[in-house]
Amino acid sequence: MPATPLLAAAVISYLLGSIPFGLLLTRLAGHADIRQIGSGSIGATNVLRTGSQRLAALTLLLDLAKGAAAVVIAQRWGHEAALIAAGCAILGHMFPVWLGFRGGKGVATAFGVLIPLAWPVALVTAVLWIVTALLFHYSSLAALVAAVAGAVLAAIVADKPTALLIAGIALLIIARHHANIRRLLAGTESRISLGKS
Q1: What are the tens digits of pLDDT across the range 19-51?
Q2: Under a CB-based contact definition with an 8 Å cutoff, are residues 89 and 104 in contact?
Q3: % residues pLDDT > 70 (the chain)
Q4: How many Å apart are CA 52 and CA 57, to the nearest integer?
Q5: Mean pLDDT to the nearest integer, 142-160
Q6: Residue 133 in contact with residue 142, Cβ under 8 Å?
Q7: What are phi and psi of 40, to 5 degrees?
Q8: How far is Cα 193 from Cα 179, in angstroms, rounded to an integer?
Q9: CA gap 130, 143 in Å, rounded
Q10: What is the mean pLDDT of residues 114-137?
Q11: Whole-number Å distance between alpha carbons of 184 and 97
């Protein structure tokens, strides 16, 4: 494939992924800078720490949607472009140029790119995230379980390039949760509440 469509897929997807919905929504709602509370992340879990489950849910949906949109746009240029788009959308969310390359942990955006790329993997990982979060009340643990399970399942049901990409995304998510892993092992990780506020 010519380099131009692949480059376009990469740039468009990075820019889509780098939109900091969590930061924008909390500022519009009159909250303090989301990067100054909790984990400092711009993702839905940290938005939840503002006390607004509605803002957290909207952040999750928009972060998911930008990942899915990046892949769907790139699919018109072929599967290779879609894979590049998926990776760049995740990188854009994790390392947005607008925020000094300090973004979120990529979980919702990863679910988003999986929907058009490998929907069975997206479905299983989403169910595992929900079940783990409901049972243990740790968003980070749920993310880690979903990431590992997604990589294993992709190796079974997806084509090799897609499976390798999903494994790479899982490794990025695990790396971004390094501090959470230390807190989980120490028993000091913050729990989340999924009930009504």
Answers
A1: 999 999 999 988 888 888 877 889 998 898 887
A2: no
A3: 97
A4: 9
A5: 97
A6: yes
A7: 80, 0
A8: 20
A9: 9
A10: 96
A11: 30
**Cβ neighbours of residue 29 closer than 8 Å, sequence gap 6 or more:** 50, 52, 55
Cα–Cα distance list, 177 to 33, 48, 61, 84, 159 (Å):
21, 17, 21, 23, 27
Kindly state the greatest CA–CA separation across the chain.
Answer: 51
| pLDDT at residue 37, as a whole number | 83
Question: What are the structure tokens assigned to 51, written together?
Answer: 């006390």
Burial of residue 33, with CB atoms counted within 10 A of its CB: 0-12 exposed, 13-18 middle, 19 or more buried: exposed
Is-contact 43 22, C-beta < 8 A?
yes
Amino acid code (one letter) for 62: L
Exposed, middle or buried by CB within 10 Å (0-12, 13-18, 19+), for 133? buried
Q: What is the pTM for the complete model shown?
A: 0.92
- The pLDDT-based confidence of 197 (bands split at 50, 70, 90) is very low
Q: Which residue has the tokens 């409901």?
A: 134
Read off the pLDDT of residues 133-143 as tens digits, 9 standing for 90 and up: 999 999 999 99
Contacts of 134 (CB under 8 A, 6+ apart): 194
For the chain, helix, strand, coil in percent to 5 are: 75, 0, 25
pLDDT band at 146 (very low <50, low <70, confident <90, very high): very high
Gap between the Cα atoms of 181 and 141, Å rounded: 8
Reduced to 3 states (helix: H, G, I; strand: E, B; else coil), residue 29 is coil
